[in-house]
Write a structure and sequence with these properties.
Layout: E1 24-35, H1 38-46, H2 54-72, E2 81-91, E3 96-107, H3 112-130, E4 138-148, E5 155-156
Antiparallel strand pairs: 1-3, 1-4, 2-3, 4-5
Helix pairs in contact: 2-3
Length: 160
């Protein structure tokens, strides 16, 4: 099983050793969307949700998730994150909240999982804080937008 980097000699999962890699600046940006109805959208944007400021809490949840990604994802390396920024783009026409997470690190491995975890946790937090008023909330399109740094180089998604 030598051709598989995440399997040991017994064919069982292992965490890849990154100690031989050079530490470089690594950045990743991920996004996702939470779709709600008009009533829920208005409550979010006007700050009327009973659980509190939905986007403020979701922002903190996203930052916390980026910092804790290795605790949730088995083969994700614990790394020193140097920055996390979560932003929201409310779209009144489609009653959607766009979420973008940008994560930075100087390390031996990338921060894609941290950025994706941040978006996922922010989206789940929006869902949790709004589920009392709407049951059919949809979370869609969580994906990597771009990443830079490391041996594999830069990546930018073909579509936004």
């Amino acid at each position: 099983m030598a051709e598989f980097t995440h399997f040991n000699a017994e064919g069982r999962a292992k965490m890849v050793d990154v100690s031989g890699k050079q530490a470089t600046l690594r950045e990743a940006t991920a996004c996702g969307t939470v779709h709600v109805n008009a009533e829920t959208f208005g409550m979010i944007t006007r700050g009327e949700m009973k659980k509190g400021d939905v986007l403020c809490v979701a922002q903190v949840a996203g930052i916390m998730a980026a910092k804790r990604a290795p605790e949730l994802i088995p083969m994700c390396h614990p790394i020193s994150i140097t920055g996390v920024d979560i932003s929201f783009t409310p779209d009144e026409e489609s009653c959607a909240i766009g979420i973008t997470a940008a994560v930075r690190s100087k390390g031996e491995t990338g921060v894609e999982m941290e950025a994706l975890a941040a978006v996922s946790a922010a989206a789940l937090t929006i869902y949790d804080m709004c589920k009392a008023v709407q049951k059919d909330i949809e979370i869609t399109n969580i994906r990597l937008l771009k990443k830079s740094g490391g041996k594999s180089g830069d990546y930018t998604a073909a579509y936004k």
